[in-house]
User: Fold this.
Amino acid sequence: MAETKYIFVTGGVASSLGKGIISSSIGKLLQARGYSVTIQKFDPYINIDPGTLNPYEHGECYVTVDGHEADLDLGHYERFLGIQTTKANNITTGRIYKSVIDKERHGDYLGKTIQIIPHITDEIKRNVKLLGNKYKFDFVITEIGGTVGDIESLPYLESIRQLKWELGRNALCVHLTYVPYLAAAGELKTKPTQHSVKELQSVGIQPDILVLRTEHELSTNLKKKVALFCNVDESAVIQSKDMPTIYEVPLRMQEQGLDVTILRKMGLPVGETPTLGPWRDFLDRRYKATEKVKIGLVGKYDLQDAYKSILEALSQAATYNDRKADIHFINSEKLTDENVEESLKDMDGIIICPGFGQRGIEGKFVAIKYCRTHNVPTFGICLGMQCMAIEFARNVLGYTDANSREMDEKTPHNVIDIMEEQKSVTNMGGTMRLGAYECVLDPESRAYQAYQQTHIQERHRHRYEFNNSFKAEFENAGMKCVGINPDSDLVEIIEIPTLKWFIGTQFHPEYSSTVLKPHPLFLSFIKAAIDK
Assistant:
């Protein structure tokens, strides 16, 4: 295609309707037709990135290969499309304003008064078109965070208005709203959608397509009514009903011709409908899997979005092992030597979750000791891997005061320590090993059996590392360091080969697990849990 086409996805009525899933589904359907597609998320909060946000506020922080801390929706984009996103795929208001202010301080505006229009909106537009200009994608899908009517979203909506005017048929707006069901009246109500579209029209944007989130089937008459009141073609009113899995959504969108409507409105040939064979095979296996594999998630955030990528990676790996992932959250703050057996005994496998800080850490040690001594398949991720090392040092090497410098600065047995180059950094937003790093695997290890290759690349997000001065002691006592970074000699993977499956990774393998390419470590872990 000669020119990049831009699709904007906005939301109305309520937040958390699933704009990320709709954006990913549109991307999947266009990609299946042979187009090159990328998706980006614009978030209206003033944080520079979600790296310093509490997971309770925003869910997990997703990390891209180039080391950017991003919104969790980027995980959906990568899992659905099998693409790799970068820093350019997630922009916050904080980054937009910082960029403009830095230019102003630098004198780039030659003494002009800096205003929302045109300076902020020009910077937003520059970022919208950046990926299309640089990589010549056929489609760039831009999801706007928040809800239409939020004061923070106005500069983004003004930028979309301008772009739709400038780009003509090369720009299109998909608006996602909610159709509530009033049980007392026994009716579905379209009024919130009408108000939401009016709100969008009031800032100069006429949506081209409406996607209606609903818990109940929408009648043809109801969709006609919405089309009439909102100035939208009847064929461009699509329902998005609750599904048993988010991975059903692209198929339901395809059935209603969402991709066909987009192509027609943008003046592109429609062609044959893609079969989405591998995607359907995945769903088929998912629905046929009736036996469960019970996995315990030991962590401190009692919120599923805080471990979103882990949950999806487990679910994908279970499907490819023809099982249903039955995931149980186990709050590490409440785990003690007295109740650990009761909490973990029914689990087929345990994940020791990542995180930062002291809270809930002792409960993780209790869980790890139980799993190690009872030979339960155990997977420690990032802080989870560090906890495995600390527990081993305490209970096997006999260093009862062993700890991480993160938790106890004065510990004499600092088996986990801060990296040398991080010691002078004080800025919370810039003190980590972030993004993809190389790792070389021991060919005799269980990790190698999973990957079936010696050189891998995985994504990191942490400040502290395994302290190599303890490496020989660990290995002599039975915990092997089987994955090493070739440049820094830092330990990336530990495992106890005498146990069924006891592996800790300093990196986050969950970030690179996708629907059609599940992560080998998760596949191997689930298989071990089934064998248990």
